[in-house]
Every structure is written in structure tokens, then in C-alpha cells.
Design a protein that fits this description.
Keywords: Signal. InterPro entries: Ice-binding_C (IPR013424). Pfam families: PEP-CTERM (PF07589). This is PEP-CTERM sorting domain-containing protein. By secondary structure, the chain is an alpha+beta fold. It folds into two domains: about 1-15 and about 190-219, no CATH class; about 20-185, Jelly Rolls, CATH 2.60.120. It contains four helices and twelve strands, in the order H-E-E-H-E-E-E-E-E-E-E-E-H-E-E-H. The strands form two sheets. Strands 1, 2, 4, 7, 9, 11 and 12 form a seven-stranded antiparallel sheet that branches. It has a five-stranded antiparallel sheet with strand order 6-5-8-3-10. The protein is globular and about 45 Å long. It starts with a helix and ends in a 5-residue tail after the last helix.
Length: about 220
């Protein structure tokens, strides 16, 4: 009897109790322009959460003045669109000195433990006194006319500026920082057909073992 019962328990234990589902928003909006936060002040990017547990947040940076001091950045996540919402979380980070040219480079930092509500809007805000690094954004524009050369890369959100980088950003709302955010949420897994078959077979074996045990009572 023990062998039959062990098989049944193994069949149930082999079923996945949960699965990890990763969601990522990644926006690259032209990647032709960058600006210093030291000159323009804190800048934010609004987005709509597609996962309830954030794990990383990243932006594209480049080095506008590689010889300047590599000062830290502060990341603040606020509720709503803009600078005025309640603070959800805040982190400090320093970019690696390997970012030493004008080539746009992704840098992601850990925000594990940051909980948000799916479908709600949040704004990721960057601030720094660094003149070394620039934050990459789009759309690309004609520097002489201000005409946008590409469309709005992320319709659910937009970039917010303390001092406008381009006048058109405030007019059209088409400007976005190049950013990406990743979240991981544990969700209940639906067993695959093979798992269902294994579970049913195991239950059958368990039932057979119980029937065998009871047989002498009817003798």
C-alpha cells in the first residue's frame, strides 16, 4: 500500500503551485537627443503600471562631459502624472564610468520591493547635479525648426520637465525619456494537460490502494 500512496503524493507535489510572469515596458523614442539634469532640473517620465511588483527601472544615458565628476542620481517614484504625487519609493544610484561617450547606454537599477497598482499612472523622476551624464530622450527633432522627426513613442505617458528641453514637449506632449521598467508577479498556474493526467493517474492509484485495503472487510 505504501508504494501506491507514495506515487499519488508525488503526482500532486509535481504540479506547479505557481509561476513567475515577467512584464516589461521598454520605450526607445528616437534616442537622438540628451540633456543634463544639472542644467534643466529634475525630469520625470509617466507610465501606466502593467505589473504590481516592480523589480528594476532603467534609463538610457550618455556622457556629455566625460571629464566631469561622476555625481550620483536620485530616482523617485510618485503616484500620478507629474511631480506632485505621493512618493512611492526613492533610490540613489551612481552610473558606471564605462558610460564615457555619447552612445546611448542602458543602465538599470534594482527597485525590488516597490509595489504599485496595475492600471494606475506613476511618474519616475530623475534628479542630479551631474554635468557629466545626459539623459536620452525623444522624439528626434530638427534643431533649427523644432519640427518633430518621429512620433510619440509611448502614448500612455510623457516626459515632464522642470525647465522644458524643447518648447514642443509642452505643446504636443510627445516627448518621452528612453526608459524601461520590469515587474515580476507570482500568479496561480493552470496545470498543463500532462500534469492533469499525472494527477488523475495518481488519484486512481490511491483509490485502488484504498479499495484493496478495504476488501477483507467484505470477505
Amino acid at each position: 500500500m505504501r508504494s501506491f500512496m507514495s506515487a499519488a503524493l508525488f503526482a500532486v507535489a509535481a504540479l506547479p503551485g505557481g509561476a513567475a510572469s515577467a512584464d516589461t515596458i521598454e520605450v526607445v523614442s528616437g534616442q537622438q537627443r540628451s540633456f543634463q539634469l544639472a542644467a534643466f532640473g529634475p525630469t520625470g517620465q509617466s507610465f501606466v503600471a502593467i505589473d504590481s511588483n516592480l523589480t528594476s527601472f532603467g534609463f538610457q544615458f550618455n556622457a556629455l562631459n566625460p571629464g566631469s565628476a561622476n555625481l550620483p542620481f536620485t530616482f523617485t517614484l510618485r503616484e500620478g502624472a507629474g511631480f506632485g504625487g505621493a512618493v512611492v519609493s526613492t533610490f540613489d544610484f551612481t552610473l558606471p564610468t564605462s558610460i564615457d561617450s555619447r552612445t546611448p547606454t542602458w543602465f538599470d537599477f534594482d527597485v525590488t520591493g516597490t509595489d504599485v497598482t496595475i492600471g494606475n499612472t506613476y511618474t519616475a523622476i530623475l534628479s542630479s547635479g551631474s554635468a557629466r551624464n545626459g539623459v536620452v530622450m525623444g522624439p528626434d527633432i530638427n534643431i533649427f525648426t523644432g519640427q518633430e522627426l518621429s512620433g510619440d513613442a509611448y502614448l500612455p505617458g510623457r516626459a515632464f520637465f522642470t525647465t522644458p528641453v524643447y518648447p514642443n514637449c509642452a505643446i504636443t506632449g510627445h516627448c518621452d525619456l528612453n526608459f524601461r521598467v520590469t515587474g515580476v508577479t507570482s500568479v496561480g498556474a493552470v496545470p498543463e494537460p500532462a500534469s492533469w493526467a499525472l494527477m488523475i493517474a495518481g488519484s486512481g492509484l490511491a483509490g485502488g490502494a484504498l479499495r484493496r485495503r478495504r476488501a477483507p472487510a467484505f470477505a
